[in-house]
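A common beginner's mistake is to predict each chain separately and then try to dock the pieces by hand. The better habit, illustrated here, is to supply every component at once so that their relative placement is modeled jointly.
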Amino acid sequence: MPLSTQIPHEMKIVYIQRRIADLAECNKAIESGDFSFLEKIGHQVKGNAQSFGFDALSPLGIALETAAKSRDIPTLRKVVDDFTHAVEHIQKTEM
Amino acid sequence: MKGQANAAQQRISNEELFKSPMFRATYQQMFGRRNQLASKVKRILLIEDDIDMSEVLQLRLKKMYNCNVDVAADPFEAMNKMVEGYYDLIILDWNLPVLNGEETLLRADQAMAYEPSLPIEWDKNEVPVVVFSSSDKEDCKVRKTKHFNYVGHISKAQPLNKILTTIAEFIQRKTAGFRSI
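With all components supplied together, the output reads:
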């Protein structure tokens, strides 16, 4: 891959830190029923995870967006849980 | 000591390499076209509310084309920037706060019609607009307006190098004159 198209490591770290902050907000949003916030986060992760080289997060973004659209709280809880594990795994293996 | 000597020796041989005619010719062949293109695109407006995406694209496009890349995080910030200056290319996210991509362009088009201090370039040219979204291409069509011309769609859900390659293709087509696809 040419140097100009690589993502700097610092940007990847910031990306993961932002997702950790998002996950905390997602848990609050599930409790308060803020489905539009959950849909927005899912949509963004669906769009940007691959660009940052975190392909594993992309399907979780899709699942989050879909569950938020259908207001399916049990699925939302599971997806946010899976998302948390996936981010923790990336932190352990890639950061 | 030995390591330092090797590093110094390596630097000298790199300098010799960079100065060599063969290296310069190869470099020119590889990057000359990009530099030519860069001179045609001075200003890009990236309308994107996803801060991760806008930061990385702004950084990479600036490096690749040595041009100004302004970022607007919402439709109203975008409208203000458009009224203040002309852009050679607009990269437009579809799912923006309050308005979607098409509504943003329609509102901007209306606002510009009544803006007395609008830069003159807006009256002479239509600005090519590339929609950049994780939504399907079919859901992101933009009607042609006085100031904007939809030229294509880039999916967000792909690796950065592919996104940058597609943007490069649009910039290349700008130099040859756009045609809607």
